[in-house]
Amino acid sequence: MNKLNVRVWRGGAEGAFQAFEVPRRESQTVLDVVTHIQRALDATLAYRFACRVGMCGSCAMTVNGVARWTCRTHVDVALKNENQLTIGPLRNLPVIRDLVTDMREFFDKWARAKGSFEGKQTRRDDFAKIRPQSEDRRQIDAAIECIGCAVCYASCDVVAWNPDYLGPAALNRAWTLIKDARDQKKTERLRAVAGDAGCHSCHTHMSCTERCPKHLSPTAGIAGLKREAIFAFTGGSS
Ligand code: SF4
Ligand code: SF4
Ligand code: FES
Questions:
Q1: Is 180 helix (H, G, I), strand (E, B) or coil?
Q2: What domains can be seen in the chain, in order of their start residue?
Q3: CA distance 17 to 3
Q4: Residue 119 pLDDT grade (very low, low, confident, very high; cuts 50, 70, 90)
Q5: 8, 28, 110, 159: which one has the fewest Cβ atoms less than 10 Å from its Cβ?
Q6: What percentage of the chain reaches a pLDDT higher than 90?
Q7: Are the C-beta atoms of residues 198 and 166 closer than 8 Å to each other?
Q8: Residues with CB under 6 A from ligand 2
Q9: Which residue CA neighbors atom 4 of ligand 2 most closely?
């Protein structure tokens, strides 16, 4: 049987890669490889997953230097022309153990970017009428399907340089709410994302957009936030 040479990060911030040999299988995903190691070779390996179908966002890891959702990444794609798979935790997040990162800062930044909806209607009011073909609705639809996997966050060099930077996912979330006609917190949210560690820190490197497994473009949302913030706080035109 064909074997795959795999190196997996073991330990926390300090640690080392450990080598394993894993049977090669047809249509094998990177998550299948990690699961095989944990079930058949070393039960102490720590990693996260839940849905296995690209819904929950919990399985992201660094695979041969690139942040990826591992349940939907086939080994063939990750390997390219290399003959070894190297799997580590996501960048830009503290490592708890092995392939498990501490996601608290990532989600705290969603809260700092005021990433929760606040409407004013009660259950007795009629549904808000949002036209499906409206420009705002089109922009929300293009950005809303985020699964919170942090692939973008791990791929962003500005997060690496400035740990306070809110990052692409939190800013993308803020953008979907800024465009939501029912939300009541627009000014407060714009203030939250226009600070030193907010949208103006983005260098438009596009790594988040290139790597997002859901094909979202946080870069476009961040550019929109920059425009809206300038319009709101300097009286320019958006
Ligand atoms: S476009 Fe902005 S948020 Fe996205 S990776 Fe580049 S610097 Fe980070
Ligand atoms: S924007 Fe894309 S890469 Fe970033 S957390 Fe959401 S789904 Fe993941
Ligand atoms: S396990 Fe849920 S997205 Fe991969």
A1: coil
A2: 3-101 (3.10.20.30), 104-233 (1.10.1060.10)
A3: 18
A4: very high
A5: 28
A6: 89
A7: yes
A8: 146-152, 168-169, 172, 212, 214, 216, 218
A9: 152
